[in-house]
Amino acid sequence: MSLGPYASFIVTSYAAAAVVIAILIGWVVLDHRSLTARLREFDRSGVTRRSGRSAVDS
Predict the structure, then answer these.
(1) Is the pLDDT of residue 23 over 90?
(2) What is this structure's pTM?
(3) Cα dihedral sign, 11-13-19-22
């Protein structure tokens, strides 16, 4: 398979896009872990969510 005279540009572009996507996926995974840990911490300390209350609780 020959990509022609622009092979290095094409391969570099695809590699750069793959790296950016991998970084974004890693960022989302790390953020999810951080927020999950923070929510667990709030649950342990007794903080509740407003969405967990019914309308008659106010």
Answers:
(1) yes
(2) 0.67
(3) negative
